[in-house]
Amino acid sequence: MRHPLHDYSGGGYFITFTTQRRLPLLGRLDTGVFSILPAGEIVLDVWHEIPGRFELVTLDTIQLMPDHAHCILLINSGMDINKEDGKAFLPVVLHWFKGSSAIRIKKLLGWTGKVWGRGYHDRIIRNESELDKFRNYIQTNPFRSTLK
């Protein structure tokens, strides 16, 4: 459900998505250091292709974990992401990202099943303070996960 008072014509989004059944496909985590696996390399490659496919989207940051990823996407002003008539429609961008990376990962691994868990979680970034908070959360996630 979208926030009724938020202007969806652009802005930042903190997004989390998981692998199917939380399988550790993307990398390994050892004492706070993330080591990327080939499937994780594919995810990063597709991530960097987003601006070429969706010109109104700017990439901010991404952090892969073994079974999930956190990222921040910025949608430039002038696009209502609640309408499917624009290239920066957030669900369309994420559907393309997950679909494209899944096709390549399945080919790499010789799989026929699902790579990604259903859907994703997104959070509107309302101001610079929240953007900094989410950036810090993403950057420190590998370290924090070893403290559990």
Structure description:
The chain has 148 residues and is α+β, with helices and mostly antiparallel strands. The chain has a single domain, classed as Alpha-Beta Plaits (2-Layer Sandwich). The protein is 36% helix and 25% strand. It has 3 helices and 6 strands; from the N terminus they run βββαββαβα. The chain has helices spanning 38-53, 90-109, 128-145; strands spanning 11-18, 27-30, 33-36, 57-64, 68-75, 121-125. The strands form 2 sheets. It has a 4-stranded antiparallel beta sheet with strand order 4-5-1-6, with helices on both faces. Helix 1 runs antiparallel to helix 2 (90-109). It is globular, with a radius of gyration of 15 Å. Residues 84-88 have low confidence and may be disordered.
The count of β-strands is 6
CATH superfamily: Transposase IS200-like
The proportion of residues forming helix, as a percent range, comes to 25-40%
CATH topology tier name: Alpha-Beta Plaits
Rounded to the nearest angstrom, the distance between the terminal CA atoms is 31 Å
Uncertain regions: pLDDT < 50 for 5+ in a row? 84-88
CATH class: Alpha Beta
**Which descriptor suits the 3D outline?**
globular
Would you list the SSEs in sequence order as H and E?
EEEHEEHEH
Assign the structural class, choosing from mainly alpha, mainly beta, alpha/beta, alpha+beta, or little secondary structure: alpha+beta
Q: What's the domain count?
A: 1
Query: Which whole number gives the mean pLDDT?
Result: 87
Strand order of the largest sheet: 4-5-1-6
Compute the CA-based radius of gyration: 15 Å
The amount of beta strand, in percent, is: 25-35%
- At CATH level 2, the architecture is 2-Layer Sandwich
Tell me about the largest β-sheet.
4 strands, antiparallel
Number of alpha- plus pi-helical segments = 3
